[in-house]
Amino acid sequence: MLIKFTCPHCKISLNVGSDFAGKKGVCPNCKKELTVPGKSENAPEEAKKTE
Ligand SMILES: [Zn+2]
What we know:
The chain has one domain (2-40). The strands form two sheets. A two-stranded antiparallel ribbon has the order 1-2. The protein is built from no helices and four strands. The protein has strands at residues 2-6, 13-17, 24-26, 33-35. The structure holds zinc ion (ZN). Zinc ion binds next to loops.
């Protein structure tokens, strides 16, 4: 399963494996540190799309 989120710095769309949920990483585009959002309990409201 992939987590889709947007880099807070450069706004690029990113997909990471769910293993990275809640972990810190570095954006491959802008090279800044970011935190991967967790599962739905921590997701921002914009992420609540029903599949
Ligand atoms: Zn970025």
